# Entry
Amino acid sequence: MRALIWHVDEFSYWPVGRESEAAEEVPEGPREFADSIVALVSVEEGDGPAEAERMASEIAGVARQVGCGRVVIYPYAHLSSSLARPREAVSALEELSRRVSSEGLEVHRAPFGWTKGFRVRVKAHPLAEQLKVVEPGGARGGGEARAGGEAKEKFHRFIVIDDDGTEYEVTREDWRSSPPLNKGDRRHRMLAEFVRNELEGRPPGGSAPRHVYYMRKLELVDYAPESDVGHMKWYPNGVLVRDLILDYAYFRVARQWGAMKIQNPLVYRTDVESIRMLQGEFHERDYSLDEGLVLRFASDPGAFPFVQRTMFTYRQMPLKVYEEANCFRKEQRGELTGLMRVRWFLMTDHHAFLRDEEQARAEYRKLSLLFKQLMDDVISGEHWVLGFEFVEEYYERFRDYIRSLVAEMGVPAFVKLMREMSHYYAFKSEYQAIFPDGNNLQISTVQWDVKNGERFRIRYIAEDGSERPVPIILHASSFGSIERTLAALLEGAAWQEREGYNPVLPFWLSPEQVRVIPVRIPDHMGPASELADELEGRGFRVGLDDRDLTLSKRVRDAKSRWIPYIVVIGDEEVRGGFYSVTPREGHRIGEEPTLRMSREELLAELERKQGGMPRRPMYVPRELSLRPTFTGVS
Ligand SMILES: [Zn+2]
# Structure
């Protein structure tokens, strides 16, 4: 669906004659409008209620932007060359009107199917003329089915694969009675939620997701009103968490897998044929700049030309590259929710260039197992399931391979089949985190690409010395994006909270791992700083609460910041040669014990918690008295 949207001083129209059978009756009421938003709308093939809803939020967004309360929807066939059939166009326009009016705006709709004349005076301000494009099915760059509606149109067969590899075909009507979806353990309950979201749509959204509250409360990430929507600002503690995740993504995943780290530009030329094709196929909302330039939506526009100019032979394959990729997608305003969907994000993106199917199968398996470990150990615990999208003919060929892969991973999966290839991939897997509010979010993904090797003329030297095109490329993202990973980590904390436990971040990602609180200042500052020095020297992140506040207030503050270990030092501790330590994780809310620990016991406990995970120093001052307040949310 496309709409040319004007903010007008005056607009009037007059029907001249019927154009088609489907012409609507001319409505009663005004045909002249002052100070209004006029939307000239072309309904395109494939547009349904979901597209109407998204366009409605675009139009309402413009109306709010310019502070105008009246909208005229005007059918206009000249914005597209692939128009919907008249009957479908009328029903999409009806839905669009309903949705716009449900946003609290006054709506008039000009009749469809008439030749009409109009007169217009458009206001002279920068926002007075805007073109909005809503692609059928939504932005699929992340490869994520959004609502049941899309799964219905894009996919025609659905299969549940249980964690032992057994297949169960399901339909939109009977999925609830499928045996694996009725097993009742946590993982199968998660799968049932995911299948429901895919086939019936997500539960209606109530309040904002929990992570939106946490991300500000913990002073990690926040909205940045001076930027475009969907561009977040990161506070020091957020930057720290992001850097730690990137450390893990490179050292523990990409490097271990054998990838070379590269970096490509963020801006690309749209007059390069292959870039244009890639861009079009992604169904992506371009972030366009002047002069035929566009910001990249993934690392692909850089990575493929990069490898195309790299000389390599069969001996150097699989050739693997990795990039920390800042990406930009102009998602619809109405779809931007906290960290789940943003316009600027950082992807941890891997590509492997493979010689043949056998090699590709081996790498697909390696990546699948690596990402399973990552989801289990780092991101989501038991709160995730697998999704697959398959072109049907590939499913028939890879069926046994996929079933045994699912069994090896031990995580049940939901498979959606499409008749024909609509993207560059023949199939892909998605690791879906499930949130307490019933939402799901794709984190890791692996994709089997059979098109871009040829399209970008990526070649290798074969054993007989000839040059051959690379037949298969695997795309893989370990953390999806850092933003999504952070959303999943915080929603994981929301799961803990919902089950009565203290919400926590994993110890290695906690911006401040230990807070040392001297009971009286300055009496106990000496031993407190001494401990802080020692812990810092061993690579832990320590805060020292030197503020002139009551002890209970300082302890409360440490708890509200989710500090994993609170260490109190007073007369008793100094005399007895021990510390009073309050650990947070795994305890019910308000029932954290306070333990007496020796220096050695405390150190051993912290080392055990840290395991071999990446370490970085703190990004804010150690002394609480030196720290500014960023959000004022506590
Ligand atoms: Zn890619």
